[in-house]
Amino acid sequence: MGATQEKYKVLLVDDEPIILRSLKVAIPWEELGLAIAGEARNGEAALQLIEETAPQIIISDIRMPVIDGIALMKEVLPRSSKLIFIFISGYGEFEYAREALRQGAFDYLLKPIDHDELTEMLTRAIARLKRQKENEQLMLSVQTLSMLARERMYAEFTLGNPRPLQHLKWLENSELEGEYFMAVVRLDNYASLTAQWSVEEKRLWLFAVRNILEEWSLENGVLSVFPFYNGEWILLFPGSLGSVSKELGEQLISGIRKYSKLECSVGISRITRGIDQLSTVYPLACKALYQRFYSGQAGVFINEETAASGSREVKYPKELELALIESIRTVNLERMLSLFDEMSAFIEAQGLPQELAERLIMEMIVVLYRQFEHLNMHTDWSLEGLLSRLHGLGTLSAMIAALKMEFSKWMLGSNKSATREDGRSVVEKSMRYIEANYHKDLSIEEVAEVADLSISHFCTLFKQISGYTFLEFVTHCRMEKAKYILQNSNVKVYQVAPLVGYQDPRYFTQVFKKATGKTPTEYREENSRQVN
Predict the structure, then answer these.
(1) How far apart are CA 325 and CA 160, in angstroms?
(2) CA distance readout (Å), 117 to 8, 24, 88, 111, 483
(3) Bridge partners, residue 9, by sequence
C-alpha cells in the first residue's frame, strides 16, 4: 500500500557517531514512510548534503563544531521555508532549545534520546508535511480555477454579457482598469483545415497553437490570453505597447508559422480601458481582420477607426445581424431571406455610397459565415470566393440576390448534412460522453471538443438545455455512481473515491457530504442493501 507513496527524506546531523547509529536503528523509518537521505557530523557538511539531497526533515544536534544547529537552520530556512528542523539538546542547553523554537524549529528533545518521543514528533512532522502538500495542491487548483474563471469572465464580457461581474467579484483586479488593446489571432482558412483534420488532430493542433501563444505571452507582457471561437484566440496587451502593436502581431504570426507550420492573421483594436469595453473592442479587432479578405495574404491588420472616417457616421445594424444569426441557429431559411431584404432596405434608406454599402455587407457576411462555422454547419464553402464575386457586382440588388442564392445553398446543404446536429442532440451527446468518462480527469475542453463547439458556446448551450453547468453535471454523475457503489457493495470508502474520479478520498468525502448531507459512511449505514 505504501509502495506507491513517495517517502519523505530525513537528514541526520550530529557530531557523535553513536547517536547517529542509534537513530538509524531505533526509529521505524520505513513504517513511518521516511527514508534517511544522508548523515553529517557538523553543520558545514550538512549544508552540502541539504543542497544535494533536498530533505524535508532535519534532525540535528544543537551544539556542533564549525556550524552549530541554530546557525545551520538560519542559513537554510530563508531558502527552504518548509524544511522541518527537530533539535537534540543536552540538559544544559535549554536556552539554546528555546532560541531554536523562536527561530522556527519544529520541536526539540533532550538527551538521552527517548526514541518513542522522537517517533511521535516525526509523526506530527509528517502530518504537517502532508498538510503543506494539500495546501499547495489546493492553491494550485484555486489558481487554475481563477485563471479559467477569468478567461470565462473575459469571454462573457467580450460576447457582451455582463452577468459574470455579479458572480465573480472575487476575480476582479486592476489589469483592465488601465489602458489596454485587444489582438484577435485567427487561423487562416480554418474551415478547410478542419475538413482535413480528424477530431483528434484538430484538438492537438488547437492545443499546440494555444501553447505557442501562452509561452509567447509570458515573454511579452500580455495581460491575458484565451481561446474564443475555434481557430481564434484573444490576447489583451497593456496600452503601453500600443506603439509596437504591429511588430507584436508580426511576431505572433512568425511564431505560429515557425512552431506549427500554420498560417494566421492578427486583427488589432484601438486602445481602451475597463473590462466592460471588451465587447466594444472585439468587433473592432474583427473588422480589422476583414481586411484579410482583400489583401489575399496573412498579416497584421489594425483598426484605424477615426472620428472623420469619411464624411458621415454609419450606424452598424446590430439588431439585424443578431436576427440573421438567430435565423441560422434555427435553420429558418424563409426568415433569413426576408432579413436580407431588410438589409437591402436599410442600406437604401441610409443612401450609402457603394463603397460604404459594400463594406457593411462584407462585414455582415463574415459574421454570418463564422456563425455557420461555429455551429459546425459548413460544407465545402469558399468565403473568399463569395466575397470576391460580390466585390465585382455593380448594384445593391445584384449583391443581395447573390447573397440569397449562396446562403440558401449553404443552409440547405447544411440542413441535409448528416453531420449536423441541433443543440439538444449535441448536449445529449455530451452528457452521454460525460456519463461514460466521469471517472477520468475530465476537462471542459475535452467535452467541448466532442461537441465540436467553442468552450464559450458549449458552456452556454449545455446550461440552457441540461440545466447544469459542466462541473455540476460531472459532480452529479460521480455522486450518483458513488451512491450506487455504497449501496450495493462492500468496497471501502477510500477505494470508492478513485472509482468515481477523485484521487483524494478526503476531498471525495467533502464533496459527497455537500451533495447528500451525509458522509459516505453515514450514507452506506442508512442505505446499505446488505451485500455479502
Answers:
(1) 15
(2) 19, 15, 12, 11, 42
(3) 35
- Of 329, 199, 216, give the one whose Cα is nearest residue 264: 216
Rounded to an integer, what distance in angstroms lies between the CA atom of residue 365 and that of residue 75?
67
Rounded Cα distance between 134 and 131, Å, is: 5
In this prediction, residue 531 has a pLDDT band, given cuts at 50, 70 and 90, of very low
Give the type of residue at 494.
Answer: Y
Whether the CB-CB separation of 179 and 271 falls below 8 Å is answered with yes
Higher-pLDDT residue of 139, 53: 53
| pLDDT value at residue 39 | 92
326 grid coordinates: 438567430
Q: Give the chain's count of helices (H) and strands (E).
A: 24, 11
Say how far apart CA 224 and CA 164 lie, in whole Å.
17
Strands (E), 401-514: none
Taken as a whole, the chain contains a residue count of: 532
For the ranges 77-86, 443-452, 456-465, the maximum mean pLDDT occurs at: 77-86
What phi and psi, each to the nearest 5 degrees, are found at residue 498?
-65, -25
Q: CA nearest 270: which of 391, 181, 375?
A: 181
The answer to whether the CB of 248 falls within 8 A of the CB of 180 is: no
Phi-psi label, residue 67: left if phi above 0, alpha if psi -120 to 50, beta otherwise: beta
Strand order from edge to edge, sheet including 8-13:
34-40, 8-13, 57-61, 84-89, 107-110
Q: Is the pTM of this model over 0.70?
A: no
Alpha carbon of 243 to those of 143, 236, 240, 249, 273: distances in Å? Answer: 32, 15, 7, 12, 16
Q: What's 270's DSSP letter?
A: -
Q: Which secondary structure element, helix H or strand E, spans residue 177, and what is its range? A: none
Give the pLDDT score at 309: 42
* Residue among 186, 148, 171 nearest 292 (CA): 186
What confidence tier does 184 reach under pLDDT thresholds 50, 70, 90?
A: very high
The alpha carbon of 40 is separated from its chain's Cα centroid by a whole number of angstroms, namely 45
Q: Is the pLDDT of residue 427 over 70?
A: yes
Nine-digit cell at 77?
530556512
